[in-house]
Design brief:
Blueprint: H1 2-22, E1 32-44, E2 50-61, E3 66-78, E4 85-101, E5 104-119, H2 121-124, E6 131-146, E7 151-164, E8 170-171, E9 174-186
Antiparallel strand pairs: 1-2, 1-9, 2-3, 3-4, 4-5, 5-6, 6-7, 7-8, 7-9
Length: 191
């Protein structure tokens, strides 16, 4: 009897999700604010090092085709313990161009920003290292799929180009991937 109750609950849960998916609402419009947070793996373009970042994003849509976006990456370490950087945090801001179709939102974003970096003394063989604030440029492509008025799934690939210009010059160019669940609200009433 207990298994039957659980089966009925699961059936109605998936039936309600089907109803949400069929709902005709205009989610992608002016005033849409979306946020997301995830853990992003990366691969350095100039070496074999790979890192992890805590990635946060805030984006505001001016219309269906243009949005302002800000991204923050907090350095979480490398895959192995012998990494060149003690940290490499990033703050990026810029605009995204969107190609929307119903609940699907393909985009490309261009974002300049800055990187706060510090090399590890033991891996670069220096007695001391300085904290560096370095200019960076990034290009991101991705897709958002809006499941309801309040959340969406996303996937993004980003190439970040820059250089640590303190102590010794180190290329900080990376390829980063992000995916997960994001949240969204419409701040303006639909006209």
């Amino acid at each position: 009897m207990e298994k039957k109750k659980i089966s009925i609950i699961i059936f109605f849960f998936f039936l309600s999700l089907l109803g949400i998916a069929q709902e005709k609402i205009n989610i992608i419009r002016p005033g849409l604010i979306k946020v997301m947070g995830t853990i992003s793996p990366s691969k350095m373009l100039s070496s074999s090092e790979a890192y992890f970042y805590l990635h946060g994003n805030l984006e505001v849509y001016f219309n269906k085709r243009v949005s302002f976006c800000g991204d923050m990456y907090g350095f979480s370490g490398g895959i192995n313990r012998n990494t060149e950087f003690e940290y490499n945090h990033n703050l990026l801001y810029g605009f995204a161009l969107h190609q929307t179709h119903e609940r699907n939102d393909l985009y490309v974003a261009i974002q300049p920003g800055c990187s706060l970096t510090k090399l590890k003394t033991d891996t670069v063989l220096l007695k001391t290292t300085q904290v560096g604030v370095n200019p960076v440029m990034s290009l991101a492509i991705g897709d958002n799929f809006y499941v309801s008025r309040f959340f969406h799934f996303f996937i993004q690939a980003r190439i970040l180009v820059g250089e640590h210009a303190y102590d010794i010059h180190k290329n900080i160019s990376e390829l980063r991937l992000s995916a997960g669940l994001g949240f969204n609200i419409n701040a303006l009433k639909e006209r």
